[in-house]
Amino acid sequence: MRTEVAIIGAGPAGLMLGRLLELAGIDAVIIERKSADYVLGRIRAGVLEQGTIALMDRARAGGRMHDEGLVHHGVELSFDGDRHRIDFTALVDRHVMVYGQTEVTRDLMAVRQAPAIYEAEDVELHDFDTAPFVTYRRNGVTHRLDCTYIAGCDGYHGASRKSVPEAAIQSFERTYPFGWLGILVDKPPVSDELIYAHHERGFALCSQRSPTRSRYYVQVGGNEKVEDWSDTRFWDELRRRLNAETAEALQTGPSIEKSIAPLRSFVAEPLRFGKLFLAGDAAHIVPPTGAKGLNLAMSDVAVLAGALIEALQEKSSAGIDAYSSHVLSRIWKAERFSWWMTSLMHVFPETGAFGRRIQRAEFDYLAGSRAARQSLAENYTGLPA
Ligand code: FAD
Ligand code: DHB
After folding, report:
1. Which of 17, 165, 224, 276 is a Cys-bridge partner for 128, taking CB atoms 3.0 to 4.6 Å apart?
2. What is the tens place of the pLDDT at every residue in 328-341?
3. What is the pLDDT of residues 103-125, one digit of tens each?
4. Which of 77, 257, 266, 49 shows the shortest CA–CA distance to 157?
5. Rounded CA gap, 334 and 349, in Å?
């Protein structure tokens, strides 16, 4: 088998890249390790920047998103029960949309004409400095796919980044000593807008998926196990971290999904190795506090699609030559913002009383300074590509 672009991974990055190439008339094959149902079952991000909304439209996959997605003009920050609203529209004339990653993935799967290859085992990348090809096993049979380029969109644990020789790649990493325990519940959201809450017991986030489905998170220790968190324990802990009025209004019920995600900042450099390009979580991880992971994956592949189209149709290497430095500049800004918002909103065991006073000062500064709020709003709603 032969194709122009072999795309490894059918997450949001791989599916969007495949769709943009397909619309440009470029043949691409997506190879995914899991089944389509498994990919759709993963509950992850929920907030789309305007750039991501526009990209869904460009992919002709935005119809249901516009019908069902919820436009949000601001978020609320709360610190030890004191509340402050960040008004995106007034501050930067921008908004975000609440629409789950699951739905983005489903819509992208639905519009794609060429089906992806699911349940591909032992995916391996070969000879990406010269004549690249990918091998994988499916139903016990080994296949070989020759290609002009490979796009590594297979997430943090994928095969693409790992296939690069260690000497050719540099990693920058920071792990945090806590995770997010998330719950999905079929109850109306406690608030029209998202609430990011700092409390001495730890961070909490009130998010949503629809007018009848809510998503809530609490900061938990790095070694916590999801089995130790009954629904009752989760709701009790969440209520404690919210202000009294919000805690009172919270509608609880049986969880329909519950999981713990570790928090990590990670960037690989560079993102091009001959004819292999890394994009999305394969290239970088942000802690989820700024809602940047999915959006960053989408902006990477928007740039990569343009570069590959230029290389394959116009025979110009300008775009692929610039890809790594182009996207890394935006990636590091999103890393900075995600790290900053994580630092403000979480309880860090090692910082002690001094650290908490600094966090309080940061919150008070935001509440009192339009310039500070504008900076938050500009970053949260998405910096230009
Ligand atoms: P992924 O979505 O990880 O997709 C990669 C795909 O590659 C997967 O389908 C995987 O099965 C496949 N794959 C892996 N290895 C191979 C292989 N060897 N061969 C072939 N295929 C392979 N972001 C937020 O903004 N908010 C959140 O609340 C949030 N929660 C998250 C919770 C978790 C547990 C995780 C892991 C991430 C979360 N994120 C969140 C981040 C966000 O979901 C990601 O940034 C986004 O999914 C990135 O998309 P991607 O396509 O680059 O990678
Ligand atoms: C959600 C996740 C985030 O990381 C975030 O910052 C906001 C919302 C969510 O899953 O709804």
Report:
1. 276
2. 999 999 999 999 99
3. 999 999 999 988 899 999 999 99
4. 266
5. 25
Q: What is the pLDDT of residue 385?
A: 77
**Could you identify the residue written with the tokens 């300074």?**
369
Residues classed as catalytic: 72, 196, 288, 292, 380
* 162 CA → ligand 2 middle, Å: 28
pTM above 0.90, yes or no: yes
- At 292, list the tokens: 């940047």
Residue 18 neighbours by CB under 8 Å, 6+ apart: 7, 10, 28, 30, 112, 114, 116
Ligand nearest to the CA of 286: 1
Q: Which residues line ligand 1 (CB under 6 A)?
A: 8-14, 31-34, 39, 44-45, 101, 120, 123, 153-155, 157-159, 261, 280-281, 288, 291-294, 297
| Whether residue 214 has its Cβ less than 6 Å from ligand 2 | no
